[in-house]
Amino acid sequence: MKHLIFATVFLLATVTASFAQQDRLRVVTTTADLRSLAKAVGAERINVSSLVGSGETPEEYQPKLNDAEILKGAQVVIRAAPGIDPWFDKLLVRAAAKHSLSGIMRGEPGYLDASLAVAATDPLSVSAGFARTRRGSRGGPNPHYWLDPKSAEVITDKMLEVFSKADPKNALYYANNRKTFLARLESKITEWQSALLPLRDEPMIAFHDDWSYFANRFRLNVVDFMAARDRAPPKRAKIAELTKLIKARNIKLILAEANQPERHANKLASQTGAKVVLLAGSVGELPQTDDYISMFDANVNALLAARK
Fold first, then answer.
1. pTM for the full model?
2. What average pLDDT does the segment 185-213 reach?
3. Could you tell me the CA-to-CA distances from 63 to 74, 131, 158, 232, 291 in Å, in that order?
């Protein structure tokens, strides 16, 4: 009898959990950064998946056959930008044709381009144009705007709007989650700015101009970049130019990103005595960068450790 009661209770719990899962808002993002921000707003009321895995590069991502299945049942889709995830348009069309998706195509209520949310307040004034073109996929400027933690404020504001329209009964829940997250983030930004204050006059080299957003927010003195186009390796002439610059200005730090080629930064370091600081450009690229805030924690700590 006891076994029967236990089995019945277990079955009821399983069924209840299954219904709870089905009742959640189904969200699909293109990147891990957007997944982390969506989770901060949606918490237990959403099921969120990222097409590009943690540490993978969205610009170079090749959609898999299973990606169309991930989009099945999605009520909200959130992309980084047409130039960052140009493959998403075709994937969305393919998934829509296969599963008769509705509400999440471009221009529909469940479709969100995060770069358009950032464009109005973009301090570097590049994401607005980038969001409307494919310059990034052709090797042009590639603004990784999420590397400015303040961008989370406008991105999550748009997420709140989209989630609330798709799931109005939980609108207040989403609003409260966002408020709590932003309060924590604002406190951390103040902490990070204070911690990095001694580095403001320190000249640095960064691998790519993605890091303009990070440097601009924390007023870091990045004087030059190894590569001005995403994934384009620096030419020999550029390496020679930077070698002279590093020696002339006694530059001690070279900012490199975890998923970018290490050989160029390492070569510069070996020729000049500067130190390579490995940073995470996206959630999950390095250990202890499992969410949006921990990514910045890890990057700030890496910079401070390198300075010591």
1. 0.87
2. 94
3. 17, 20, 26, 22, 23
